[in-house]
Amino acid sequence: MGIGRVLIVGSGGREHALAWACLRDVPDLAVIVAPGNGGTATMAENVPLDVTDAAAVARLAAERDVDLVVIGPDAAAAAGVADACTARGILVFGPTAAAARIESSKTFAKHVMEAAGIPTARWIAGDAADRKRLSAFVAELAGRCVVKADGLALGKGVMVCGNLDEAERALDECLGELRFGDAGRHVVVEELLSGTEVSVFGLSDGRNVRTLVPARDNKRIFDGDRGPNTGGMGSIAPPADASSDAFIDEVTRSVLAPCIDALHVRETSFVGCLYAGLMLTPDGIRVLEFNARFGDPETQVVLPLLDESLLEMFTACARGEVPAGVASAKPGAAVGVVAAAAGYPGDVRRGDVITGIEALDDDVHCFHAGTARDTDGTLRTAGGRVLCVTATGADVDAARARAYGNLARVHFDGMQARTDIGLPVTAGARS
Ligand code: AMP
Ligand code: GLY
């Protein structure tokens, strides 16, 4: 059976990029994005939906007779959207709630890594009753550690500590003051690693995994990796230190495939995009985290470089027949620069009119995240990260020049964008 109609669940730049890539593969595909944004509205049908209401997602898929559901956000996977769709006999690309625990429980992820021999930071886990043991471990590390809320905390549950005071304070905030609510009642404490970070996505059918080109995300709001963390201010693919075939093979062999195997053995087979957040340390690759979904904004630079049909890969994963290996990538590189709204990453202003998108070069993409359209078509800001301008080129420098040259044509009041996406990482610039 061919795939004629797809439902993509989510509303970010990631979902816009997924919809774009599926339509690149099959131009007459019918695509529904729920709830979608101002960008997906121009290429697909947006349907309002609460993505964590698994029954409602499955009902929409059944009512609209979709052939394949693609899950974007982790919250939708953790809420059991895949389980609800499968129960209705609908093909799904995205993990069950049980498999999504690889992201939604950091303790579970650490146990899986340990059992599978996947390289990661030394760690222990516990709750308030284990405080003595946690403090002893922190002391052993001289306070140079990372305290992580076990559960999903909107990407904010990770506290990087440089000394004993900071580490004890982080434990107090998590376990005592419940800064992250129930998500932080249980914590993982691990050694502080240093190095550059890389994101690698593997698409799996539960048994095999197909690896996509690596990417790097710039999470801090300001140039030079300064200021508070955000959802991501831009990204590049592939990073120079993570682009060799040997690197991609090693990540596939020592990180992605063992994780997929370990989840299969536990009878929680993982179908969907397994995202390995890696640190390249002087001692080799270490896994910082697994996510159960595509990363954003990395997806927006990875997909333009993909030289295979994404829709075919999704369908093969959902049917349990994806070929293992490394997906073909186009030569060259991609750079994506995020334009964020005034106030981001704090309280953001909404409603500013966005202009200039129609002036972008034909082969430069503007993936929308926080945008909405008035009934007359006027495009306005409607979220923190508003859009991401992504360009490809012969190398990162060429792609970077084109991305910034095109971003300069886009305007909205209060726009914030970094000027250094795609420049070499400046060691020690973090503050
Ligand atoms: P996570 O959500 O676990 O990826 O953590 C978020 C961010 O915290 C990562 O992208 C890293 O920048 C940082 N981080 C996490 N774990 C460690 C670690 N063990 N050592 C140093 N930095 C870390
Ligand atoms: N780019 C980081 C994330 O998607 O979690």
Report on the architecture of this protein.
The chain is of the alpha+beta class. The protein folds into four domains: 5-96, 3-Layer(aba) Sandwich (Rossmann fold); 122-191, Dna Ligase, domain 1; 196-330, ATP-grasp fold, B domain (D-amino Acid Aminotransferase, Chain A, domain 1, 2-Layer Sandwich); 333-407, Phosphoribosylglycinamide synthetase, C-terminal domain (Glycinamide Ribonucleotide Synthetase, Chain A, domain 4), CATH 3.90.600.10. 28% of the residues lie in helices and 27% in strands. The protein contains twelve helices and 23 strands. The chain has helices at 13-25, 54-63, 74-78, 81-87, 101-104, 106-116, 131-140, 164-176, 245-265, 298-302, 310-319, 396-407, and strands at residues 5-10, 30-35, 45-46, 68-71, 91-93, 123-127, 145-149, 158-161, 186-191, 196-205, 209-211, 216-217, 220-222, 226-229, 234-237, 271-281, 284-291, 325-326, 333-340, 365-368, 371-373, 379-381, 385-393. Strands 3-2-1-4-5 form a five-stranded parallel sheet, sandwiched between helices. Helix 6 crosses helix 9 (245-265) and helix 7 packs antiparallel against helix 8. The longest helix has 21 residues, at 245-265. The site of adenosine monophosphate (AMP) has 12 residues, from strand 7, strand 8 and strand 17.
